[in-house]
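Explain my protein.
***
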Amino acid sequence: MTDGRHYRVRLTDGSVDNIHLRIASDVFIFLQRTHELFTQLIGSIVTISSFAVILWSLSAATPLPLFGRDWSFPGWLIVLAASYAAIGTLFTHLIGKPLIPLNFSQQRYEADFRFAIARVTDQSEPVALMSGEAVERRELRERFSRLVGNWVRLVDRQSVLVGFIGGYARMSTVFPTLVVTPAYLAGHITLGSLVQAALAFQQMEGALAYIISAYSKIAEWKAVMDRLAQFEDAMHHVDDHHDSKAKIGMTVLPGDDRLIIEDLLLRLPGGEAMAAIGHVDLSRGDRLLVSGASGAGKSSLFRALSGLWPLGEGAVRFPENAKVFTLPQRVYFPLGSLRQAIAYPTLVELADDDAIRDALQAVGLGYLTHRLDEVADWPSVLAGGEQQRAAFARAILAKPDILLLDEPVSALEEADAMHLYRLLAERLPRAIVISIGRAATLGPLHGAALELKRGVAAEAEPLIPPPSVARVRS
């Protein structure tokens, strides 16, 4: 999860699905199958070692009379058992090879279905309020249909494989006897030797046919290995990936306290231009309001400033040792106590308890201080406005040099929004604050505005009267 890899992998490799379930389910299956196959392999090796000695001595005492000639040679029973197992293994592989992609798809479809169920459960309130059960039911039914369809194909192929393995196993009980019967009929060996040779041959061949008996597990193990290898490669590829469209330069200005954006052009993964900014020059304490229609690239601008969106051209120069803190549009609450939720992303044991309580009081959530150690599903417990107040408490605790706020007061009344922004000016007077929101609501709280239009160079204008004026030029 270092350096946002869990997010950036979406931009570099869209084929990696359900990362969380790959870690949970696929790793478990990999460990389980590896243990089973390894122990079974050890058993086969021990059996081969034990019966190879017996078969070698029986090969010397057992001729192979065919067509009036003895075709035997030292160890011929071992060679014949290995050849028989190799032919069976070849046919098993030809029949069972499709199980690998089928198992791969089965893991994916199961993960997709589990994710969809979990998502509906998490969003049960809006689904119920809007009576959207029919839509959710249809989506779940489609995902379940893909899961069942692949499962049917998987079972069909496994049935064919099991049928072949069953026939092979039955033949394996007869074949050793047929091999040594000519020597017995010719009087070269006794009935006891025939039975001994047949049993030893059968044990030897069964051990050599390890792949045949374990092929279904091997196919599942290989499919899980492919999924985990794909995931691991994608994680490595995130750091090594050099997209031809990723030309945004991120540099530091030594000894300077300004944030400068020059000729920035943001692009979509497909290469289409999204937002263009000519020149922005912000100093300590400046406030910039970014607005624009949906899809104009406002949130992508924040991702670029956070280092998560490299697609585009231009340059962004940061103050030396600047701490960038972003509050996304949708407030996120980690699992755990309210104390950890407010301290996020700082580990709770590193957070100052008095500072947390003071921040909650300042943003109007003082009535929650007695619940700091309570563990709950906080996105469900707290209303939208309370969640946004909690986000402002995080910003106060983080004390960033650059604060990025994406629709931070959309669920609050205008008076509450003005109070929180004045609180930021009081507690973080030297922070550069860039907000996304409506000019009518947030305009009086910022010194300059920048309206983004998709595919059009942004024109920045100062707001009159500005609380603090940012030097912004298009």
About this structure: Residues 465-474 have pLDDT under 50 and may be disordered. Residues 104 and 291 are 45 Å apart (CA to CA).
